Amino acid sequence: MCTLDQLKDRHSPCECETSEITAVLGRRPSRRAILTSALAFSAAPLIARMPAMAGSTLAVSDIAPGVFVHQGRYELQSPENRGDMANASFVIGNDSVAVIDTLGSAKVGRELRAAIKAVTDKPIRYIINTHMHPDHVFGNAAFKEDNPEFVGHHKLRRGLEARAQSYMASSKDMLGEDAFDGSEIILPTKGVDDTLTIDLGGRSLVCEAQKTAHTDNDLIVTDSTTGTAFFGDLLFSGHIPTLDGSLRGWLSLIEQLEGRTVARVVPGHGPHAMHMPEGILPEKQYWSVVAADVRRLIKEGNSLTEATKVAGQSERSNWKLFEQYHVRNVIAAFAELEWE
User: Fold this and answer.
1) What pLDDT, in 10s, does the model give residues 291-338?
2) Comparing C-alpha atoms, which of 116, 128, 313 is closest to residue 220?
3) Is residue 79 packed enough to be buried (19+ CB in 10 Å), middle (13-18) or exposed (0-12)?
4) What is the CATH number for 262?
5) 322 within domain boundaries
6) Measured at the alpha carbon of residue 218, what is the angle toward residues 78 and 175, in degrees to the nearest 5?
7) Is 95 within 8 Å of 255 (Cβ atoms)?
8) Distance (Å, rounded) from C-alpha 221 to C-alpha 206?
9) Domain of 182?
10) Is residue 61 one of the residues assigned to a domain?
């Protein structure tokens, strides 16, 4: 059975059944101890979908000149999907390639690498991770032979080091020996304190470190040539958002992102590309509803147990994987908002 701390720490709360969560809450711990789908990009008919190449089961889509995205599945980690549950992207410059997130295992990471090599023979010099969660970083191991710079938020190293053991154990358990074989945590070699500009030859990627929101190590990457922004898990579409940072911080950041002018945005989970600000509105609504419900329940003197049954339930029909992730979101929201 999972403890409350484990529930908050895990990116994949599905590792604990709902009955386990109920049992944990039933122990009445102290509160202080507890820590629809958006609009698809309107130019989607113009996206060139490239089938999986030899040696790869991954398809990638050309969403802008030199910008490719693989869309992950709306699923939980399993031996069948090999950790292919998030979006992964790559940008090709005149001199080199940057990969933005690498999926959830070395095995599926190798398939991503094969798909990239089928598109271009330019060297892969940068692996950029938008944040620490396993479904975005465990594929890094597949790119070690390229000897790239591994780039992330300046807090990414600390986060991965702190959770290395739990991430390795839980991912191996969910993916199985075969799918997880060869996976390892690759720590960043270059941290982003504020902004970092990466030159790929003829085009630049601007990496921006964010304040605590989805996690405390979120990074936004923008291709200056095409105006394509990669939000990582600061943007979910279809797949319910998951909270591992600060609800108040995330809502504050969403307000800022709504005003950002970009040609298109790639979510961490969702379609290949979306428009702003329309694309982020469903996520904003979800978190606003959760925050409002939790604040009301706290004001009325209700318990955390009651909050997990009531808060945000009006959003159930708008999101895939609601059953697997929503309760964890309410637990995290309650812990944060009770002491504001």
Assistant:
1) 999 999 999 999 999 999 999 999 999 999 999 999 999 999 999 999
2) 128
3) middle
4) 3.60.15.10
5) no
6) 10
7) no
8) 6
9) 41-279
10) yes
Q: How far apart are CA 114 and CA 117, in angstroms?
A: 5
**The two structure tokens encoding residue 276:** 């702003």
Which residue has 């409002």 as its token pair? 292
Number of domains in the chain: 1
Tell me if 104 is assigned to some domain.
Answer: yes
Residue 157 dihedral angles phi and psi, to the nearest 5° = -55, -50
- Tell me 135's DSSP state: H
Pairing between β-strand 97-100 and β-strand 124-128 as defined by DSSP bridges? parallel
Interhelix angle 322-337/18-26, rounded to 10 degrees, is 30
- For the segment 151-164, what is each residue's pLDDT rounded down to a tens digit? 999 999 999 999 99
pTM, entire model: 0.86
Cβ-contact 87, 71 below 8 angstroms: yes
pLDDT of 17 higher than 60: no
Closest CA to 96 of 220, 223, 203: 203
CA distance 59 to 128: 20
Cα–Cα distance, 289 to 296 (Å, whole number): 11
- pLDDT tens for 201-239 read 999 999 999 999 999 999 999 999 999 999 999 999 999
How many other C-beta atoms lie within 10 A of the C-beta of residue 178? 10
Element (H, E) at 289: helix 281-299
List CB contacts of 95: < 8 A, sequence separation 6 or more.
122, 123, 199, 200, 201, 202
Which residue, among 210, 228, 209, has the nearest Cα to 279 in the 3D structure?
A: 228
Question: Strand, helix or coil at 121?
Answer: coil
Residue with tokens 């637990």: 331
Which one, of 129, 177, 128, 174, lies nearest residue 10 by Cα? 174
Whole-angstrom Cα distance, residue 317 to residue 314? 8
Instruction: Identify whether the C-beta of residue 128 lies closer than 8 Å to the C-beta of residue 217.
Output: no
- Neighbour count for residue 14 (Cβ, 10 Å): 17
Specify the amino acid at residue 13. Answer: P
**Residue 289 in domain:** no
